């Protein structure tokens, strides 16, 4: 871990070296005052050398001016080194997060990830600046203090240094408790951040259902847990600081008694005794700096460990022999496909020994180029899972998925997904302009191409009716748009991408009937000439599909055209009849095939 932390200093090694040099000069200037004090007490004042007293005073004033400039450099440039390292770590984390598979985000809350990108990296930044400065400079200061104090009285110096091992032992024991407490604090902070992110994102639902008290109760529970975790960390920190401060206070008592006895026996002069008492802070201060640094060290190390937990997550990887698939025609085959979901705990850790949840069992499909293929069936049957497996969002171990005869493990994920357009029920729009959201389909598209895509999605006229047209900001997740408008923007995005394969995952199920009819017109235009896989809740929208497969319990139980399936009289007919009678208001008892 240390080697990986140090690697972030390399791009800033020149500025880091200057920061260390400045810190060293500041430490050396600190030695001058005790030296001058000793000279005054032993020589200048007793021998009335007033001119030298003034000269030394002016020299000290000049050195303090230099130290002021050096301290500014340390505080400014030193912290900037930490900030640049923090920015690089954030850049690395964001880049790695973009490479992680869908399954990672299924099992990790956004708020917890955000906590690692903000709070944890801030602590790492502070450690990056103060860590080397405190360790290296304080260590050098202790050596310099030992040498200088030894010139005054070696025995008093050895007595002080003999107490150091006790300080190390006590701080080591207390530091372990503090580290454990700070780790728990980090976890509780991530939990409360996740809860806040969820509550704020769902504030409209909270208001609609007047459940503000319930959300406040959930928040207060998390807040209380954070307080308790923080209480434990502060308790451990208090024990650490009070224990180590007590040991350093003993140093002063030892110096006072031992120095007094040495003075009584004539083993030290009054001037040297006074100079030793004044100069002993040269030793105690860096020792205390190292002690107090332990708190910052714990914060930084804990943060870096949590940073590495994300960085060490296995990213999506193409097979070693994977090649760019180029432009495809759109023939899709699923051969004996089996898939299961692993079981994870609340922290996103895979639970070993738990039986995975199988959602697809020996599924085989053949979707010819340019045809429309529909998947229907009860919820939880595996329809959406198929939609996620074709673009290789999830990996699978049993079976094959082929595009134009090429198994998807043999092609790069990026080139595969470049050929696939997806319109889902849950539309995600970015907090940006309408134009920027459409451009997400193809970032290098021209304004004319964006407008043409909007026209084909039947959203252009609405956009032009807005005061700022395509430059209109739509808010977080498109909050300023209706459900139908969001869906049309997502369709325009796919029109702009112009992929040969299209996946519609319940694209209209959340819309009212009138809006659905209008959106369906845009979807029909979008599907023309493309291989289309449709997951539909409303069966009336897929009557004209070339082929329909009914999936239940992870298996294909029926397959054929609408007419063929209706004639067969199986689950599809039961589903269709159930929806038809529900739409007309006719009382209908669900058949056994739908409730078993």
Describe the structure.
The protein is α/β, with parallel strands linked by helices and about 600 residues long. Among the domains are: about 1-310, ABC transporter type 1, transmembrane domain (ABC transporter transmembrane region fold), CATH 1.20.1560; about 420-500, 3-Layer(aba) Sandwich (Rossmann fold). The protein is about 60% helix and about 10% strand. The strands form two sheets. A six-stranded mixed β-sheet has the order 6-7-8-3-9-10. Strands 2-1-4-5 form a four-stranded antiparallel β-sheet, covered by helices on one side. It is elongated.
Which key terms come to mind for this protein?
6-stranded mixed sheet; alpha/beta; 62% helix; single chain; ABC transporter transmembrane region fold; Rossmann fold; 4-stranded antiparallel sheet; 596 residues
In short:
Helices cover 62% and strands 10% of the residues.
CATH superfamily descriptor of the domain at 2-311: ABC transporter type 1, transmembrane domain
Structural class: alpha/beta
The first-level CATH class name of the domain at 2-311: Mainly Alpha
State Rg.
35 Å
As residue ranges, the low-confidence spans are 586-592
**What is the residue-averaged pLDDT?**
83
Through-space gap between termini? 54 Å
At CATH level 3, the topology of the domain at 2-311 is ABC transporter transmembrane region fold
CATH architecture of the domain at 2-311: Up-down Bundle
Q: Overall 3D geometry?
A: elongated
- Report the biggest beta sheet as strand number plus sense, adding barrel if it closes: 6 strands, mixed
């Amino acid at each position: 871990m240390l080697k990986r932390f140090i690697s972030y200093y390399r791009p800033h090694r020149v500025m880091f070296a200057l920061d260390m040099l400045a810190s060293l000069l500041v430490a050396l200037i600190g030695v001058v005052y005790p030296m001058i004090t000793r000279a005054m007490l032993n020589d200048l004042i007793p021998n009335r050398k007033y001119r030298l007293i003034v000269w030394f005073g002016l020299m000290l004033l000049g050195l303090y001016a230099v130290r002021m400039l050096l301290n500014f450099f340390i505080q400014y440039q030193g912290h900037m080194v930490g900030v640049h390292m923090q920015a690089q770590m954030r850049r690395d984390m964001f880049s790695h997060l973009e490479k992680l598979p869908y399954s990672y985000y299924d099992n990790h809350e956004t708020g917890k990830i955000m906590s690692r990108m903000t709070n944890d990296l801030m602590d790492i930044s502070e450690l990056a600046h103060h860590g080397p400065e405190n360790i290296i400079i304080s260590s050098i200061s202790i050596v310099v203090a030992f040498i200088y104090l030894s010139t005054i009285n070696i025995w008093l110096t050895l007595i002080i240094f003999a107490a150091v091992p006790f300080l190390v032992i006590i701080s080591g024991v207390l530091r372990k408790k503090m580290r454990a407490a700070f780790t728990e604090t980090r976890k509780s902070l991530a939990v409360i951040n996740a809860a806040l992110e969820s509550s704020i994102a769902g504030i409209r639902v909270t208001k609609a259902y007047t459940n503000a008290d319930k959300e406040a109760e959930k928040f207060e529970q998390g807040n209380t847990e954070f307080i308790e975790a923080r209480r434990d960390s502060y308790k451990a920190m208090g024990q650490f600081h009070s224990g180590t401060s007590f040991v350093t206070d003993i140093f002063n008592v030892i110096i006072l008694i031992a120095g007094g006895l040495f003075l009584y026996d004539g083993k030290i002069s009054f001037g040297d005794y006074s100079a030793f008492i004044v100069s002993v802070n040269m030793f105690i201060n860096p020792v205390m700096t190292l002690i107090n640094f332990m708190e910052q060290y714990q914060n930084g190390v804990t943060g870096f460990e949590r940073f590495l937990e994300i960085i060490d997550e296995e990213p999506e990887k193409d097979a070693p022999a994977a090649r760019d698939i180029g432009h495809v025609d759109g023939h899709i085959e699923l051969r004996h496909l089996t898939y299961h979901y692993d079981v994870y705990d609340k922290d996103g850790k895979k639970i070993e020994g738990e039986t995975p949840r199988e959602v697809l069992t020996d599924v085989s499909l053949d979707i010819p180029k340019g045809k429309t293929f529909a998947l229907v069936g009860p919820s939880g049957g595996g329809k959406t899972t198929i939609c996620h497996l074709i673009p290789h969002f999830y990996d699978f171990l049993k079976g094959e998925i082929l595009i134009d005869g090429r198994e998807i493990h043999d092609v790069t994920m990026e080139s595969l997904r470049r050929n696939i357009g997806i319109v889902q029920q849950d539309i995600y729009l970015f907090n940006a302009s309408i134009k920027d959201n459409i451009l997400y389909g193809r970032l290098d598209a021209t304004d004319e191409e964006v407008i043409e895509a909007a026209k084909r999605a039947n959203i252009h006229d609405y956009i032009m009716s807005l005061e700022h047209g395509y430059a209109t900001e739509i808010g977080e997740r498109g909050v300023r748009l209706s459900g139908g408008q969001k869906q049309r923007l997502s369709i325009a995005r796919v029109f702009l991408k112009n992929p040969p394969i299209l996946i519609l995952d319940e694209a209209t199920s959340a819309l009212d009937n009138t809006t659905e009819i209008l959106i369906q017109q845009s979807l029909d235009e979008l599907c023309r000439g493309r291989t289309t896989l449709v997951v539909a809740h409303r069966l009336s929208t897929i009557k004209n599909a070339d082929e329909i497969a009914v999936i239940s319990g992870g298996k294909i139980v029926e397959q054929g055209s609408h007419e063929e399936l209706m004639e067969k009289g199986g689950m599809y007919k039961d589903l269709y009849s159930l929806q038809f009678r529900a739409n007309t208001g006719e009382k209908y008892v669900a058949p056994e095939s739908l409730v078993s």
